[in-house]
């Protein structure tokens, strides 16, 4: 028993990062410094400093700190990839313009440096007091809608104006509406009702049942509160998991809500609602723009489409395209030409599907997820896929060849309540904005410069 150590050893022992190829023995922990195994006591023993969870957490923290140090060094994932060489090959005709642009973006992604953003607000109680949960950019990337967890429960909503990103001070303005603070938000999307991105769809839980709301974005502004319009619509629903706004004129003014075992499509002007029953919870949704078709990702792993022009009748098979993942689908993204669909699931798999053949044509490896509803971010113009894993790492892939280009560690220690939320764009702040990645984690907002 001496070879495995005594309980007294645990009192002063702080486990280092475990070796990458050390042999695992059930019930024991290997200490690389002492070159010996230590017995693990049951996890329910509160006085035991070494449990499986604590060891894994320490190992993850060691890895995160190591990557943060390496992040200061500008490295590329492809040997010999530099701007001078790329330009030379382009001038010699060895690279097409498409390949040149793609490789330049890969180079920029690997050279992004993190800088913290200072958040200002007309109300001093708004900025930096609550943890960011969700950030979602409008189409022009001029504004970021934020959902922040508050200590006493529920969520607080706000809008961040990104125009300040173009200044040397790297600051942004945050406007908050304290009226809507008691609802837990599961999903949010921008809605174009009176003009592009004029409203916001919020899906969440007030009590039981849940609540769906459509709010004017002008609620979150610096104008006189007395001049602000009220809520456009709000109705009770069963627990909502997802939402999507339709931009196709054949289903104008409609938004969809993914619920427990059903899909609800609502016309916010006429109030007409259409219900489609499903066999599983709908966790992800997106409307096509060329046709009035809604794509849905389910907890069962199924992805199916609905043509919202048809009436749902009993016995009628209204499901069109059907795809299947082996785990719950947490996010879907319809590509611009609408021939391909990207989907991620709770097994950490990210797949690109050809909708014409209903076959998976690419897989993007390295994503980590087991139970969280984590979004995908696709930038087709620059050929990049971005996703934040449950392990709090932000990963960037090449859309072209599915190569993992970069893994960005979180500035904060990994935990369930510290999973970063990100936005990526080549024009953060509008048409004259600055390119890069925005990362919201805990109470902080960071900008990864894409120059």
Automatic annotation (TrEMBL):
Pfam families tied to this protein: Beta-prop_DCAF4
WD repeats: 325-363
Keyword Plastid in annotation: no
Signal peptide: none
A cellular component annotation (GO) from this entry: Cul4-RING E3 ubiquitin ligase complex
Keyword line: Repeat, WD repeat
Alphabetized PANTHER family for the sequence: DDB1 AND CUL4 ASSOCIATED FACTOR 4, DDB1- AND CUL4-ASSOCIATED FACTOR 4-RELATED
Name of this protein: DCAF4 factor
Organism for this UniProt entry: Malurus cyaneus samueli
Lineage of source species: Eukaryota, Metazoa, Chordata, Craniata, Vertebrata
């Amino acid at each position: 028993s001496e070879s495995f150590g005594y309980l007294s050893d645990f009192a002063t022992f702080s486990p280092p990062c475990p070796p990458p190829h050390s042999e695992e023995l059930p019930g024991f922990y290997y200490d690389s410094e002492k070159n010996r195994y230590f017995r693990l006591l049951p996890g329910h023993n509160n006085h035991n400093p070494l449990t499986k969870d604590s060891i894994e957490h320490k190992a993850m923290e060691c890895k995160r700190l190591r990557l943060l140090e390496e992040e200061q060094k500008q490295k590329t994932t492809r040997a010999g990839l530099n701007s001078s060489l790329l330009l030379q090959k382009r001038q010699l005709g060895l690279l097409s313009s498409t390949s040149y642009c793609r490789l330049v973006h890969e180079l920029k992604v690997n050279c992004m440096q993190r800088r913290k953003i200072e958040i200002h607000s007309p109300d001093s109680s708004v900025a930096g007091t609550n943890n960011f949960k969700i950030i979602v950019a409008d189409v022009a990337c001029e504004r970021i809608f934020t959902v922040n967890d508050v200590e006493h429960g529920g969520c607080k909503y706000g809008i961040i104006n990104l125009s300040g990103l173009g200044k040397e001070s790297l600051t942004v303005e945050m406007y908050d509406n304290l009226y809507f603070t008691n609802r837990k938000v599961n999903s949010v999307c921008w809605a174009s009702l009176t003009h592009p991105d004029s409203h916001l769809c919020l899906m969440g839980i007030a009590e039981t049942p849940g609540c769906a709301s459509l709010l004017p974005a002008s609620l979150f502004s610096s104008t006189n509160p007395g001049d602000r319009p009220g809520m456009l619509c709000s109705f009770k629903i069963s627990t909502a998991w997802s939402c999507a706004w339709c931009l196709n004129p054949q289903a104008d003014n409609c938004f969809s809500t993914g619920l427990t075992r059903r899909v609800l499509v609502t016309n916010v002007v006429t109030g007409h609602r259409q219900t489609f029953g499903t066999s599983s919870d709908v966790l992800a949704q997106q409307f096509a723009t060329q046709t009035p078709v809604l794509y849905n990702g389910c907890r069962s792993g199924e992805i199916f489409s609905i043509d919202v022009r048809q009436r749902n009748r009993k016995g009628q098979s209204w499901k069109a395209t059907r795809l299947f993942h082996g785990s719950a689908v947490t996010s879907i993204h319809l590509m611009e030409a609408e021939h391909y669909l990207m989907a991620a699931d709770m097994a950490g798999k990210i797949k690109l599907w050809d909708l014409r053949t209903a076959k998976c044509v690419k897989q993007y490896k390295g994503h980590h997820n087991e139970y969280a509803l984590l979004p995908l971010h696709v930038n087709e113009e620059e050929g990049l896929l971005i996703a934040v894993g449950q392990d709090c790492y932000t990963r960037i892939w090449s859309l072209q060849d599915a190569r993992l280009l970069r893994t960005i560690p979180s500035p904060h220690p990994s935990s369930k309540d510290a999973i970063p939320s990100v936005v990526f764009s080549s024009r953060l702040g509008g048409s004259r904005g600055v390119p890069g990645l925005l990362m919201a984690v805990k109470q902080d907002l960071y900008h990864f410069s894409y120059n």
